[in-house]
């Protein structure tokens, strides 16, 4: 303990700890690192950001219910698929069709798009929804194509059937679910 180098190092260490810590109001080197948090602030409840994110996703899903994608039509015609007709009927019964605007994804051919618009207006009129708001536009929730979705999902790592994150496509089985030595639990 009488070693002057040890005593000097201890004094320097204590001085640095006291001057750089949050022991005084000015913070590190006179910069208050907590300046964006006002005094007496109460943090948001736990999970509030997750709730906001989930609410945004739910609202997007509700809006997506009234979107007719190219896959909702048979080939490149204006004839709606049976699943799309069922969806139109289901929404006509819940009054969602009269409140929300319907969006038809453009096909790239103006004649086909015009026929699809007329077909959707006719189908909605049959179901008792007169003068609905139907527009031809790219939907806000336009997803990825199959190969792009597989690449994106495998890049995220530990996704369903991804061989524990080694980048295998989702469509390839990974063997998850066997009993093995641990009885199927990890």
Task: Describe this protein's structure.
The chain is 41% helix and 4% strand. The protein is mainly alpha-helical and 186 residues long. The chain has a domain of 80 residues. The two termini are 52 Å apart.
Radius of gyration over all CA atoms, rounded: 30 Å
Q: What is the helix content?
A: 40-55%
Low-confidence spans = 162-186
Largest sheet: 3 strands, parallel
Helix and strand pattern: HHEHHEHEH
Distance between the termini: 52 Å
The total of helices stands at 6
Biased composition (Gly residues): 175-186
Region (Disordered): 158-186
SSE layout:
Layout: H1 4-20, H2 48-64, E1 67-68, H3 82-93, H4 96-99, E2 102-104, H5 110-126, E3 134-136, H6 146-155
Parallel strand pairs: 1-2, 2-3
Region (Disordered): 158-186
Biased composition (Gly residues): 175-186
Summarize the structure.
With 186 residues, the chain is mainly α. It is 41% helix and 4% strand.
Keywords:
186 residues, mainly alpha, three-stranded parallel beta sheet, elongated, disordered C terminus
